[in-house]
Amino acid sequence: MSLNPPDLRPDLAPKMRLDAPRPGQPTIGMVSLGCPKALVDSERILTRLRAEGYAISPDYGGADAVIVNTCGFLDSAKAESLDAIGEALTENGRVIVTGCLGAEPEYITGAHPRVLAVTGPHQYEQVLDAVHAAVPPSPDPFIDLLPASGVSLTPRHFSYLKISEGCNHRCKFCIIPDMRGRLVSRPAHAIVREAEKLVANGVRELLVISQDTSAYGADIRFAEERGHRAHIDDLARDLGQLGAWVRLHYVYPYPRVRNLIPLMAEGLVLPYLDIPFQHAHPDTLKRMARPSAQTETLAEIAAWREICPDITLRSTFIVGYPGETEAEFQYLLDWMDAAQLDRVGCFQYENVAGARSNDLPGHVPEEVKQERWERFMAKAQAISEAKLAAKVGTRQDVIVDDIDADGIATCRTKADAPEIDGNLFIDEGTEGLAVGDIVTVEVDEAGEYDLWGRLPA
Ligand code: SF4
Question: In what residue span(s) does the MTTase N-terminal domain sit (predicted)?
Fold first, then answer.
C-alpha cells in the first residue's frame, strides 16, 4: 500500500499506532487513489468503520478485506486503479471497490471478476453495506463507543470524529484497557485536518469520541505539531472554529474539565457534556477504582453551571455494583436530586468476562438491582421531564435529522446527541427545510424525553 503517502493518509501513516487490532477484531485495509475529494470519502469511510469497532490495517496481510477507492478521471488514472485492484486481489484476495471508477462497474469486473463489490463515488452507505457483508462487525456493548443501533449509517450532516483509542485507567468493571490497550492519541493536526474536510463536505456536527476524551494527548505529552497542540482544550478550540457544531463525548470528571466550560459559554463547542459519573458515593467509586473517586462533583457541576448556565449534562450510572448498600444507593438518589442532570442512562451491574469486579464480595441480588434501577430511572425521568417542560416557550436552535413523507421533521436541539438523547419534532410548515439545516424553533410542547416546536412565523 505504498500508494498512500504518509502525509496524505493520517489513518495509514507508518507512525499511526491507532487501531492495532485486538484478537478477533474485524480489520479493514484501504488504498486511496485520486483527488482530495476522494481522500475525504476514504477518511469518512474509515472514520465510520473505526467508530463501529473495526480496526484499520496499514498492510494487506493484516486486513480481512481491502477497500480500493479508485479514480477514473484520466485513462492513466483508470489504469492505475485497475493495477491497484489487481495488487489488492493478489495480496489480500478480498476487495471492495469504490470511488469514481466504480461508476463503470463492468469495466472493473471485466478486468477483475473476483472483486466482492463495486460501488460508485460518494456512495458511503453502499460501501459500508459491502464491508458489513464481507467482514461483519462484531459489536461489543462493553467496549464499543456507539450504541448497537449505531451500526446503522450516519447521515451525512453529522460525523463521529475519533480522537484516541484505549484508556490508562483500570476501573474494575471495565475491560476496555485489556481489550483496546493503553491510551493512544491521534496527532491533533490529523484530527483537525479530517474535521476540516468533513465540514467542507457538508458535515454540520462533529461528535468527538474516544474512550477518555479528557485524557486526550497525555500519551504524546500534549505534543504540538503543525500548529496544533494535542490537548483537549486546544483541540476543542481548534474544532470549534470550523463552523460546525462540536459535541464532546466521554469526558471524564477530572477537575480540569472546568477549562472546557468557557469554550461552551463562548459558543465554540456545544454546551453539552457527556460525562460518565457511574456513581456518586465515594466508597462505591473507590470500589470501582474510578479515577474521579476523590473529585467533589457537585461543587464542580455548580461551577460549570455558573460559567455556562445553559450547559446540558448527560451521564451514565451503574446500580447494584458489588457491595452497594441501600445507604450508598440512597446517597446516589439524593445526589441526583442535587445534581439535576439533564440526560441520564443507567445500567444494572453485571459481570463481564475478565473484569476485576467479578471477584468483589457482596454481589447484589438481581431483584434488588432491578428495584434500584426502577427507583433511579423514575427520579431521572422526573428530572428530565421538568427540565424539558421548562423549555416550553423558549427558542432553540435545532439541526434537522430527517423529514418524513408527511412533512414531519425530526430534529435535535443542542442538548440532544444523535442516537442517545431525545428529539424535537416539527409537525408542519417544514416545506422549506432540508436535512442538515440548522434553524431556530419555538418550543410549544414537552414530553418525558422529547420536545415539539414550530418555525417562527
Ligand atoms: S475510564 Fe474506566 S470505564 Fe472508562 S474506559 Fe477507562 S477503565 Fe474503562
Answer: 26-136
Pairing of strands 424-426, 451-454: parallel
Residue list, annotated binding site: 35, 71, 100, 167, 171, 174
- Torsion-angle region of 119 (φ positive above 0: left; ψ -120 to 50: alpha; else: beta): beta
Q: How many domains does the chain have?
A: 3
CA of 317 to the centre of ligand 1 (A): 13
Q: What is the pLDDT of residues 121-146, one digit of tens each?
A: 767 778 888 999 999 887 665 555 55
In terms of domains, do 406 and 351 share one?
A: no
pLDDT tens-place string over residues 80-129: 889 999 999 999 999 999 988 888 888 899 999 999 999 887 677 788 88
pTM of the predicted protein model: 0.72
For residues 250 and 332, membership in a common domain is answered with yes
To test ligand 1's pocket by mutation, which of 143, 165, 169 has the most ligand atoms within 8 angstroms of CB?
Answer: 169
Question: What b/e readout covers 352-361, taking b as 16+ CB neighbours within 10 angstroms?
Answer: eeebebeebe
CB-ligand 1 contact for 102 (6 Å cutoff): no
For residues 202 and 77, membership in a common domain is answered with no
Three-state DSSP class for 78?
helix
